[in-house]
Amino acid sequence: MTEPTEPDRNCNLCPRLHAFIASHRETHPDWHNAPVGTFYPKDGPGSVRFLIVGLAPGLRGANRTGRPFTGDFAGDLLYGTISRHGFSRGAFAARPDDGVQLIETAITNAVRCVPPENKPVGAEINTCRRFLSASIQAMPRLRAILTLGKIAHDSTVRTLGERVAAHPFSHGGRTFAGGFTVFSSYHCSRYNTNTGRLTEEMFANVFKDIAAFLK
Ligand code: URA
């Protein structure tokens, strides 16, 4: 039997995350407030050559809108950068109905539910890995994966059946794991850009490398 690529809407595998979402269903009934599914190009997972793996939905971003990286600062930087490097078409307007179309690219998260303070715990990362794994297996043309931040990187390396010690996270890094070329970047969070850990130029350079690799 093939594993599901996404948790169901009321997934209770991580009780803490389930309770966190339930509390926001009470206070913000107009929000998405559920696991956030992978954003695919219009031809679906079979057309994906490049997968971007984030950490987890932001509370007022993807958890509100229902599309990865949509509605918060991290998404403004990510969608702007992918568009400039030819991985999407259409004007990003921070809404799931803005018409943005990904080109042979998918965007997902290592953890599909919003965690308190943007910090999933180890057990949640491990539990949610089954969905990342099934998602990757459903992409037969996949060649390149970009991991955003160390948590997404380490979970992706484990998903690919490899040891993190053999593939340590580094900004601008590139490694070959589980049959895929894995690129890594600091996460495009507001915190990282405000503190200067990640500049727009550093982020753009990672996408330049990936575009050249996929050519
Ligand atoms: N939004 C997401 O979907 N993922 C992140 O990692 C950050 C913001």
Describe the protein's architecture and organization.
There is one protein chain. With 215 residues, this protein is an alpha/beta fold. It has a single domain, classed as Uracil-DNA Glycosylase, subunit E, CATH 3.40.470.10. The chain contains seven helices and seven strands. Strands 4-1-5-7-6 form a five-stranded mixed beta sheet, sandwiched between helices. It has a two-stranded antiparallel sheet with strand order 2-3. Helix 4 crosses helix 5. The longest helix is centred in the middle third of the chain and has 16 residues. Bound molecules: uracil.
How would you concisely characterize the structure shown here?
With 215 residues, the protein is α/β, with parallel strands linked by helices. It has seven helices and seven strands; from the N terminus they run αβααβββαβαββαα. It has a five-stranded mixed β-sheet, with helices on both faces. Strands 2-3 form a two-stranded antiparallel sheet.
Element order, helices and strands? Answer: HEHHEEEHEHEEHH
Bound small molecules, which ones?
uracil
- Major sheet description: 5 strands, mixed
Globally, the shape reads: globular
Strand order of the largest sheet: 4-1-5-7-6
Terminal Cα span: 35 Å
CATH class division? Alpha Beta
CATH homologous superfamily identity: Uracil-DNA glycosylase-like domain
Q: Given the structure, what is the number of helices?
A: 7
Indicate how many domains the architecture comprises. 1
Beta strands, count: 7
